[in-house]
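input
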Amino acid sequence: MIQLTTEERIIKAKIQLQKQSPFFAHLVMNMKIQEDKNGKLPVPTMGVDPKGNAFYNAEWIDSLTDGELKGVLCHETMHVALQHLIRLGKKQMLIWNVATDMAINWIITQEGYQLPKGGIIPDSSGRVEIETEEGKKYFDVPDKAADQLYEELVKELPECKCDCHDDGNKCGSDQ
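output
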């Protein structure tokens, strides 16, 4: 069997999305996807900027199944489509990212896409379990916007103590 490069796997996933889901394919096709060779990404997975550019860690992408890769591409495009980075404002970045991931991952899984283990993935009933200092907390995702989930999370999770929210810089991670 021929071993595809990371870039070839991404192209293959884009083509498969065209057949499976024109909506997600349209979003993915309009996104510039490139390897993060200069360390722009705060975590070793994949992320986007507000302009729709996606940056990925090739080693992480190569660890995904083809199904997970399609799910991740859909996930990242939804951050751009729903303007999550633009809507961050003075919100706590880490908590906002958790809220947006919860909302996006519910949509993605309801559309039948797979996501890699370890992400914030609602169960089949739409519930997410998050471990806090006080123990496990459960959040129901269906029919809620990321903004609603953020308000619920902010009440339950510790406050971010960084200085990055005042000058528009971003802290935190994605996925």
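quick obs: Strands lie at 32-35, 46-48, 53-56, 127-132, 135-140.
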